[in-house]
Design goal:
Layout (H helix, E strand, L loop, with lengths): L10 H9 L3 H23 L3 H5 L15 E2 L5 E2 L1 H4 L3 E7 L4 H5 L1 H12 L4 H12 L12 E7 L5 H10 L6 E2 L8 H5 L7 E5 L5 E4 L3 H27 L1
Parallel strand pairs: 3-4, 4-5
Antiparallel strand pairs: 1-2, 3-6, 6-7
């Protein structure tokens, strides 16, 4: 699917897609993603799994402290809803060409990690086969993709854009886009911007792309589930 910007306000954003695929730019992006992934692996390796993934061992509410968001469907997202989940936040706008260029990848991530045949569903199926179920029936999936649309469009126009492009994950549309608490909390000054938050509410990565982003999410989800699986195994014994 090809996403077209609704407006053409940002000349730099319009020029950027033309540079995608050029040798030097592509190589620099690869190096940046590889470096970020290596840093994250070292960071996660330095934290005991039980301390990194069990909510009871988390300290405070992390980045979710005193932050509450309401999506376009009226659902509220705060510490109670997001602690215990791995969260990918996507700051974007309909006029931002680079933002729209990465939408197909976000759709694929949403399907892979939260869809009916995705990573989480497969992990749960494996756990059931082993008799070590980690997620109870009816429990919400431990991954959330949350969009933050920094547009000044009327709500109905944004909803129409989302429907036309089949963007099904929750979307927040702040009243004061660039002055909103969520933008200030994550120090967003330009779009696109992506933030990865672990199940303890720790901000662990920013602006990862491609394989680096997928591997980071997968590692955080596996790390989150390991203590639960061990606890279930102990109960079976």
């Amino acid at each position: 699917m090809v996403f077209s910007p609704l407006r053409r306000e940002d000349a730099a954003a319009r020029r950027l897609p033309a540079a995608v695929g050029r040798g030097p730019a592509r190589f620099r992006t690869f190096l940046a993603s590889a470096a970020a992934l290596a840093f994250l692996v070292l960071q996660l390796a330095s934290i005991p799994a039980s301390a990194a993934t069990t909510e009871s061992r988390c300290s405070g509410r992390g980045v979710w402290a005193e932050l509450e968001l309401e999506d376009l469907a009226g659902h509220r997202w705060g510490a109670e809803e997001l602690l215990g989940k791995v969260v990918l936040i996507d700051f974007w706008a309909t006029w931002c060409a680079p933002c729209l260029a990465q939408m197909p990848h976000l759709q694929a991530l949403h399907q892979r990690f939260q869809g009916p045949s995705g990573f989480i569903a497969k992990a749960e199926a494996e756990a059931r086969q082993e008799g070590t179920v980690t997620q109870q029936d009816g429990e919400e999936a431990p991954f959330v993709l949350l969009g933050i649309a920094l547009d000044e469009l009327p709500r109905r126009d944004l909803l129409s854009f989302l429907r036309r492009n089949d963007l099904r994950w929750p979307q927040v549309h702040p009243l004061r886009p660039w002055g909103s608490p969520v933008v200030k909390r994550f120090q967003v000054e330009a779009v696109p911007a992506t933030i990865v938050v672990d199940s303890c509410g720790r901000w662990v990565a920013r602006d990862l792309q491609g394989a680096a982003l997928e591997k980071t999410l997968e590692a955080l989800l596996r790390q989150r589930e390991e203590p639960r699986r061990e606890k279930k195994e102990e109960g079976v014994r």
